[in-house]
Amino acid sequence: MSADELTEDEFRRFCSLIYRSAGIRIADNKRVLIANRVRRRLRATGIDAFSAYYAFITSPAGAAEMPLFLDAITTNETYFYRDPQHYAWLAGEFLPGLAERARRHTHTRSVRIWSAACSTGEEPYSIALKALAARPILPGWKVHIVGTDLSGAVLASAKAGVYDDRAVHLVPDAERKKYFDEDAESRPRRWTVKGDVRSLVTWKLHNLMLPLREDPFDCIFLKNVLIYFDAESKKAVVRNVLAAMAKDAYLVVGPTEGIYTMLDPLTKVKPWLYQKQS
């Protein structure tokens, strides 16, 4: 079998494996896409056929290759302050609301936020920028932002914190100057997140189909990831997310998640914002 060919049967087997491993449903018309992405791993491993690669990653000897396979399959594209209204709410309502609760002694002087399926880090770093801007109303607070993703490759990129102009095009100039180091000599130009932003974010490899072993969160961002999940997989993710929410916590969802009918335990605040009631 040539590595240039992915048969229909092989495509089905890879799709089934992806679904079992990550809950992601691959459309029938994505055979060429899957072939191209698996071919990257054929080159990297020196395996010369799709069938041999499938046999390898489903064997005990291929356990270390499975995360790299999923890295190659998943698509990751985002930028800072994507969906600006979400960050306007975070800075203008959520963080001041927590500060007021702390003044009334109904909340600790701390905030925990989970950026689920955070890709290359733009979302958790955007959250961190708003938390830094809110320091005057959160003096001495512990701020803990957790960015998780299924892909170790994108988490490595997130930790590096280096972005191009496209990724930061919605970041105001004053914020770029204050919180990024500019490498104007590189082509394309690069922006590196500074240490005070990085210090607020921790990174964790995590499959949304599994519970996240962390203390409860005051706010969870779940955006632009569940479009590839079927109904049963979405229900499993929602169960895990709801279990991770603290009392009175908020859930920020993207427009493509398709989970609105699954959020009955929460109260709808805005079309994209839900709250867990005490």
TrEMBL record:
InterPro entries in UniProt: Bact_Chemotaxis_MeTrfase (IPR050903), Chemotaxis_MeTrfase_CheR (IPR026024), CheR_C (IPR022642), CheR_MeTrfase (IPR000780), CheR_N (IPR022641), CheR_N_sf (IPR036804), SAM-dependent_MTases_sf (IPR029063)
GO molecular function, one term: protein-glutamate O-methyltransferase activity
The entry's keywords: Methyltransferase, S-adenosyl-L-methionine, Transferase
Keyword Transferase: yes
Pfam families from the UniProt entry: CheR, CheR_N
EC number of this enzyme: 2.1.1.80
Reaction it catalyzes: L-glutamyl-[protein] + S-adenosyl-L-methionine = [protein]-L-glutamate 5-O-methyl ester + S-adenosyl-L-homocysteine
Annotated CheR-type methyltransferase domain residues: 1-278
Top EC group: transferase
Protein name in the entry: protein-glutamate O-methyltransferase
The organism of origin for this protein: Aquisphaera giovannonii
Gene that produces this protein: cheR_1
